[in-house]
Amino acid sequence: MKRVHFTHKYLLSPTHPITVNLIGCGGTGSMVLSCLGRIDCSLRALGHPGLHVTAFDPDEVSEANIGRQLFSVSDEGLNKADVLITRMNRFFASDWEAVPERFSGLYSYANITISCVDNIKSRIEIGEILRSDVNQYDDRDKLYWLDFGNSTDRGQVVLGTVQEMKQPKSEKYETVSRLRCVDEMFDLSQLNDEDSGPSCSLAEALGKQDLFINSTLAQHGSHLLWKLFTDAYIECQGLYLNLSSMNVNPIKL
């Protein structure tokens, strides 16, 4: 029997725009934010209230970011979250928010948390924050955690549930009420970060990460999020991507 997870009912018929926290506005985060703008626009066209996104990043745009990330020369020296959210609000006439600092428990209440961070410590901290307490207000209820991670030319996307979710009875499917988050799927405490430090130029940055690993991963992960809204269920909770071999392997439930 096929295993599926049915989307939490609030995401399908919310009373407010779905609240989304995007943590990290760099290589992957800048690409994901653009995808979220398209998802929001499309959901509204379908009669859904759409998304309200808050983006977090304490870093400023550097010369090495221009070209590989969605920044231009005129953005250099400005905060990444501020730049991207201002651009999105102008382009889509939205009222999304930027927080030019590290994500913390003060801002943890969102229906969907998306992490695009480049170190393991941040993922561990995010997991602890998301599980620290529960808020019963619909637009502040912590439901899903979508994590993006990559190396030079490989990456993964993992969608987990912050809490167990009641599933409808089904004779056709085996329903899954709890999806493991990235910190439950992998023992992050046993992994070591390879801290290579900031790059001084685009050429140096491209030596560490393929030009299209971030955007390819962002497209696949955003498609999973889109299916969560439009299909009302998912059969996979993520994927593994190998850009060198052009292989994409789903993470089945």
From TrEMBL:
NCBIfam families: PRTRC_ThiF. InterPro entries: PRTRC_ThiF (IPR022500), ThiF_NAD_FAD-bd (IPR000594), Ubiquitin-activating_enz (IPR035985). Residues 20-236 form the THIF-type NAD/FAD binding fold domain. Pfam families: ThiF. This is PRTRC genetic system ThiF family protein. One of its GO terms (molecular function) is ubiquitin-like modifier activating enzyme activity.
